[in-house]
């Protein structure tokens, strides 16, 4: 794997290493195109975890930087979508390479 491919994989594994970010991905897997406020509400309702919007926003920034989440603007609202499936082949390739 190239150096840039290794860096991308590092970013993905770093993003996945945090349980809050995994919860955010779980919520986006249930329904894409969620605004920050919706994600905050779902994290509290589903998991009983109370985090500030700023904390969730920072977690979303890490997920976006890794490419696991994409976002788009709709008016004044930024909507977030899971992009985990785009990274699964690379993750599985790495795992298969290290389990043989």
UniProtKB/TrEMBL annotation:
The keyword DNA-binding applies. It comes from the Bacteria. The keyword Kinase does not apply. GO terms for molecular function: DNA binding; DNA-binding transcription factor activity. Residues 1-100 form the HTH arsR-type domain. SUPFAM superfamilies: Winged helix' DNA-binding domain. Keywords: DNA-binding. PANTHER family: TRANSCRIPTIONAL REGULATORY PROTEIN. This is DNA-binding transcriptional repressor ArsR. It comes from Maioricimonas rarisocia.
């Amino acid at each position: 794997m190239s150096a840039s491919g290794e860096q991308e994989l590092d970013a993905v594994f770093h993003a996945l290493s945090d349980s809050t970010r995994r919860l955010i991905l779980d919520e986006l897997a249930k329904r894409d195109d969620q605004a920050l406020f919706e994600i905050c509400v779902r994290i509290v309702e589903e998991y009983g975890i109370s985090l500030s919007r700023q904390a969730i926003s920072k977690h979303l920034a890490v997920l976006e930087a890794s490419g696991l989440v994409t976002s788009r603007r709709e008016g004044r609202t930024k909507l977030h979508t899971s992009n985990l499936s785009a990274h699964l082949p690379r993750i599985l390739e790495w795992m298969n390479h290290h389990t043989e």
